[in-house]
Amino acid sequence: MISQKLNDQITRIGPGTSAGEVLRRYWQPAALTDELTEARPMVPVNLLGERLVLLRQSNGEFVLMTREACPDEPPAYYPESDALEVVQNGPRYPVVEMKGMYFAYMGPSAAPAFPKFDCFRAPDSHVFAFKGIWECNWLQALEVGIDPSHASFLHRFLQDEDPEDSYGKQFRDKAAHTNMPMTQVLREYPRPDIEVEETDFGLKITALRHLENDFTHVRVTNQIFPEAICIPMSREMTITQWHVPIDDENCYWYTLFTSFAKPVDKPLMREQRLKEHRLPDYAPLKNRSNDYRFDPEEQKTLTYTGMGLDINVHDQWAVESMGQIQDRTREHLGRGDAAIVRYRLMLRKAIKAVESNREGALLMRDEAAATIVGPLSNDAITATGDWKEASWEADKQRRAECPWDATV
């Protein structure tokens, strides 16, 4: 457990706050490119506790500008009416368009370079972007993503469907080098050993599920500082997901789905996700107001939660049920929370660096950030004594067969 003072320090993100000043020194997803059209040339953006508007300037460049506050506007949603009056003398933040998303930089110093992560290196044909709202603080949204054990419970499927019918769905694949469905691996081996190591971009998190006959399932996921994760979706696809604060009590998740071998079927993936979200605010159709459409009959036969097959809904329920800002003064972390503990230490270290004007001590802030590639994010089944090398080899093979330059 931690003190209330520390909990406030690592969760609150408005201008001048400790965590907010760290996040402002990194590029933040601000909108999807689908949101800005000729018919809709300005898009309201609520980001890091600031009310902004995204627009394209006459020179073709994009910018985020302060907009007049609308007192009737809920923080996570916005109307299509008159909330877009720009404050001409307010802050102006630079914006870049990348892979179906607009990224904004809201820091006081020069913006850092983008690393050469797979989601940024892949051609547009192999990347799909989407987002959704969660009504909770950004940190608890991030922390569920760096907990490898939760998938065995929260995302437990009681039936194993054919992966060929599961395009674009996480955990609906077969584990690498075996015919065992990933849903079965997670269900039958729910308590992995977890190894966490620091990297030049954040954390590498390895979950080891020891199977029968001296074999081990190795699942490698990553925390990309300050608020993103990169995890395997299937053998062919990874997910890079940012947990972006709207304000202290609401956040967006922005995801880049990246395919190694084949171009992504963007119309299908968008159609799948729009079955669970409404436009234009990308709010989930299953939410607290309708009890996430919980179905007790489904819970008996199909899923652990009884809330459908979309794992985003499972995560949403878990993080929103903690309250809009989790009370960490009452938590009791255990062995399975190793990545969460390490991440909080990294965040506190970054806060101290900013407060002492040592910005160069932050991860991915120097010129070397542009040379960072990867990260390794996959799953494999291998002989227990050789799991490290086998995990690397599985990743190398996938990259060698990739039609775009995915070398590391």
From TrEMBL:
The keyword Oxidoreductase applies. The keyword Oxidoreductase applies. Residues 104-390 form the LigXa-like C-terminal domain. InterPro entries: Cholesterol_7-desaturase (IPR050584), LigXa_C (IPR045623), Rieske_2Fe-2S_sf (IPR036922). It comes from the Bacteria. Pfam families: LigXa_C. Keywords: Dioxygenase, Oxidoreductase. GO terms for molecular function: dioxygenase activity. Signal peptide: none annotated. PANTHER family: BLR4922 PROTEIN, IRON-SULFUR DOMAIN CONTAINING PROTEIN. This is Aromatic ring-hydroxylating dioxygenase subunit alpha. It comes from Roseibium algae.
